[in-house]
Specification:
single chain; 156 residues; mainly beta; SH3 type barrels; 2 domains; 3 helices; 14% helix
Length: 156
């Protein structure tokens, strides 16, 4: 009689940094690009298409030695609105935030319409209304152009 062993892949814990979890499958590369990672200094661990009890499949990113800035989180919520961001210090989760896409997005992305007044030299803020959170669809406050994930992601 043979005993079956369950093998599990373990990913090293990080001492200090950020874990981005619950990313929609196959979106980790878009997020790494937005964060300008990988670079020559920052250790990054990425898991793509891993099993998730509530998402089916998901991606996970662990970034050693770096906490995301407010601007990066503002962009991240457009690329992965259902993600959670965990800040790790001394191997412990010190804060966990489930991202929330608000009803308006201000000064995070630019309108994809080159003729929009927001793309002129006028002193106005880039402003969008969220038409849909999944999938993310934004509507420009000024010209009413709708932007989808590809339009948004291409700016990062």
């Amino acid at each position: 009689m043979f005993m079956s062993e369950k093998k599990e892949l373990k990913v090293k814990s990080i001492k200090n940094g950020t874990v981005i979890d619950h990313i929609k499958q196959n979106r980790a590369a878009n997020i790494l690009n937005m964060l300008n990672l990988p670079d020559d200094e920052t250790p990054v661990m990425v898991a793509i298409n891993v099993e998730s009890s509530n998402m089916g499949k998901k991606d996970i990113i662990k970034i050693e030695g770096r906490e995301l800035s407010a601007d990066e989180v503002d962009k991240l919520v457009l690329l992965a609105p259902q993600a959670s961001v965990n800040i790790i210090r001394n191997y412990e989760i010190v804060s966990k935030h489930n991202l929330q896409l608000t009803d308006e997005v201000i000064d995070v992305v630019k309108c994809s319409n080159p003729n929009c007044i927001s793309n002129s030299n006028e002193p106005i803020q880039d402003k969008f209304y969220v038409q849909s959170k999944e999938p993310v669809l934004l509507r420009c406050h000024y010209c009413e152009r709708t932007m989808d994930f590809e339009d948004i992601e291409s700016q990062f």
